[in-house]
Design a protein that fits this description.
237 residues, Pseudouridine synthase, ten-stranded mixed sheet, 4 helices, tRNA processing, PsdUridine_synth_cat_dom_sf, EC 5.4.99.29, PsdUridine_synth_RluA-like_CS
Length: 237
């Protein structure tokens, strides 16, 4: 699937939250790829921008292009291995905030549904009880609007599009989601209303537990329903 009107935000080039000799933490804006796409017009990405300043920087994990929020980037191979291992073993802690369509009957719950790539419709993912990989998400409602709810999401696993598909499976797609939202939910927001708000991990050298925060830009605010041409998607994001 081709990229739709990729016009990533250009100022500032990036928002640095934390820096030391082992790692960098950024607040990625919605509309910016984490890593470059294959086509030259999709070259601009957080990784490319960061590596111009820190050539030894290495991506540890990703956020979907339309998702905003916290990303950690390692400095050097040893730190990259140590941080990557934490994500692989689920030693990290991540919290997201989202606006979803409608009002769930329960105030909190767990989604435990296996996911697999929907190849004919990639990059979409889908629930598949036979071939899918185990995927779990904790969720709780923290606020309500007229047609939507504010939720806190805690992924236990880290599958591609996990939060987006799990919310869809509850009948409450994330607002502004161009891949999964129905017409009414898509119309309520100009961007995907999903933000990586907190990230906790062990420092790769000192082993100290670190917690980073990036306040959610859309909680408790009027829905941004104006047309936004910066948001699109690519085959592997």
């Amino acid at each position: 699937m081709a990229l739709i009107e990729y016009h990533p935000p250009t100022f500032p080039a990036f928002e640095l939250i934390y820096q030391d000799d082992a790692l960098l933490v950024f607040n990625k804006p919605s509309g910016l790829l984490t890593v470059a796409g294959k086509a030259i017009e999709h070259r601009d990405s957080l990784a490319v921008r960061v590596q111009r300043v820190w050539p030894e920087a290495r991506i540890v994990h990703r956020l979907d292009m339309a998702t905003s929020g916290l990303i950690v980037i390692a400095l050097g191979a040893d730190n990259h291995r140590a941080l990557s291992r934490q994500f692989e073993t689920r030693a990290t802690k991540k919290t997201y905030h989202a606006l979803i369509w409608g009002h769930p009957e329960q105030s909190e719950g767990t989604v435990d549904l296996p996911l697999i790539c929907d190849w004919p419709n990639r990059p979409k993912q889908m629930v598949d009880h036979e071939r899918g990989k185990p995927s779990q998400t904790l969720w709780r409602v923290i606020g309500e609007g007229e047609k939507h709810s504010e939720v806190e999401l805690t992924p236990i696993t880290g599958r591609s599009h996990q939060l987006r598909v799990h919310m869809l499976s509850l009948g409450h797609p994330i607002l502004g989601d161009r891949l999964y939202a129905h017409e009414d939910a898509l119309a309520l927001a100009s961007r995907l209303q999903l933000h990586a708000s907190t990230l906790g991990l062990y420092h790769p050298i000192s082993n100290e537990w670190l917690t980073f925060e990036a306040p959610c830009p859309f909680l408790g605010k009027p829905l941004p329903t104006s047309v936004d041409k910066q948001i699109g998607f690519v085959a592997n994001h």
